[in-house]
Amino acid sequence: MTATQDTPVTRTPGTGHVRVEGRDKVTGAARYTGDLPFTGLAHGRLVLSAIARGRIRAVEADRVLAMPGVLAVLHHGNAPRLMTDYMSVTGPPDPVLALFQHDRVPYVGWPVALVVAETLEQAAEAAAALEVAYEAEPHDVVFSADHPGTVTPANSMMPAELVKGDVEAELAASAFVVDQEYTTPEEYHTALEPHATTARWDGDRLDVVDSNQGTHWVANDLAQLFSLDPASVRVRSEHVGGGFGSKGVRPNQVAATMAAAVLRRPVRVALTRRQTFALVGYRSPTAQRVRLGADADGRLRALDHRGHSATSTVHDFLELSAASGRSLYDADAHSTVHRLLRLDVPTPTFVRAPGEAPGSFALESAIDELAEKAGLDPIELRARNEPAVGPVSGLPFGSRNLLACFEEGARRFGWAGRDPRPGVRREGRWLLGTGTAAAIFGCHSAPSTAAVTAEADGTFTVRVNAADIGTGARTAMVVVAADTLEVAPDRIRIHIADSDLSPATFAGGSMGTRSWGWAVAAAAGELRERLALGGGIPPEGITVRSDTTEAVRALSQKERHSFGAQFAEVAVDTATGEVRVRRMLGMFAAGRIVNPLTARNQFVGGMTWGISMALHEEAVRDPASGGLVGADLAGYHVASNADVPLIEADWVHDPDPDDPIGIKGIGEVGIVGAAAAIANAVWHATGARQRHLPIRPDRVL
Ligand code: MOS
Questions:
Q1: What CATH architecture is 22-30+446-553?
Q2: Which of 18, 351, 639, 660 is the 20 to 30 A CA-CA neighbour of 190?
Q3: Contact 50, 136 (CB under 8 A)
Q4: Quick check: CB of 95 below 6 Å from ligand 1?
Q5: Where are the domains of the chain?
Q6: What residue stretch is flagged as signal peptide (predicted)?
């Protein structure tokens, strides 16, 4: 008898499954990086620059070294040399990883020293007391679209410019034209669990316990930076309290490794909440100009989206805000162009739906403005501009169920019969309105490997180097294995987030579950076939390994995206200008949904962030100091429970025809379009367009 034959199927594919580590998390048994005890652990605290541009004249370490418990002060005068000439997963490494290699300071918040002490309190006190003398130079931190320093970015993840047809001619021939500027502010993805790393040398092996989105990513970069054999570096990241793009390779990992090498004892470097507002990236502010031209029937003749964003002077990161129009709407002429402004500010990075989140605010607001001008329902306008193939690429769509999302969403939201006139629905001192917007997010696969073992006792072990950053990825992989093996999930144990496992992609770009799921399903499927042949299981079990590299490379060229339709109802206080979201509905077409419970979490989480983006989030940079005003969760407003009403998220049937198990990706599409749906609802309530986020009371009145 084989294991699969003597156990009934107890899982119905498609049904929800609670998080396999959920009980550990709510009882405190799950320990995060900062909780784990180590014998002989020392604590490092980073010291960040107070000037926005210039050089370090001196680090006055002597007084601090005499303080209780202080073990070392590392800075550019004494730090070991690092190797920084290498390619990381997303391109050349951010120079902030080259800790203490020179005396230049390019922004407020640049790491200038690490103080290491016996206790966390001693390290914190000594770091606060460390005096650093600077030679300050004039700085410029003020972002604007017409800044003379604006440049065409040299390289980015997608083409910075794509032009099809003659936009100016099509605009001139259009019956209706929208030409507007939209702005979004600097926004932060400061995760509930701040970044933390413990590094320790075990003989010649570097053993790192960390909070990150990909252990191979971090291990490979540490190996490069410290000139180590990658096989001698182990990075583990068991539980992660949020990442959202911020937990790639960061200064905390480099600092802990460096200090552990110098002191030859385990060192932990945890960032403070305030430091997460300086060291781990953020969403660049954007200034976007959208020009749309349509004929009398509302068919787009021209789509012109120009996105400006900021970066630091040391590293180019481009916020691709204009890119999604290339796939969203048909138009005779398309122009999507990005420009970059290098300022004396930290380098921005990927923040949940990088590009799409701010870009959809501009484009989906402009589409709503065009619908108003053309006298069309905004959903009807979108239906008239639905492309048969990629509007710029000409490639076929893998599957495109955007209109199905709008149809089903409109039905459930009660869109039919909506009075399009703005400013006419009153309820006491409140004005009421509804709005909608489209969502799109690219769908990619990355090569991954996995191993699935049938154990002699009838259980199974899945090994896949996935990262569960709070998404439920660990549970999704158990579900994929259970459904493929046709066994109950409680017979499956899983190991993830350990670079000693064979390589798999990181958690990012909404492609984790799809990419790891492919590898797990491939191994589990082959194992199931082998078990079906019978013959018993030897004591060491039967292990099947998979590697999707070839299969992923063989995927045909297509336009692959997740889609969605966002709906919002708002009430606007005519006395104070306060906007209250009353309800939201998101309908998504995002591939096969592996685990409805955690998938709904992902969509609702993205939509909640959309409310936050629409109404609250705004980091304010002080032109005088070059730093942030209120760099903490008191000064940086995010939506709280009282701001978040009933949010419904659901999905239409949309298995990806090119993925072996139909998965697309759900992590990021939930935030896309959410802010635009709310802004469009505020217009419908008040008659005033909101083209600048956040929609603060002073902007509404
Ligand atoms: Mo995501 S912003 O690719 O973690």
A1: 2-Layer Sandwich (3.30)
A2: 18
A3: no
A4: no
A5: 22-30+446-553
A6: none
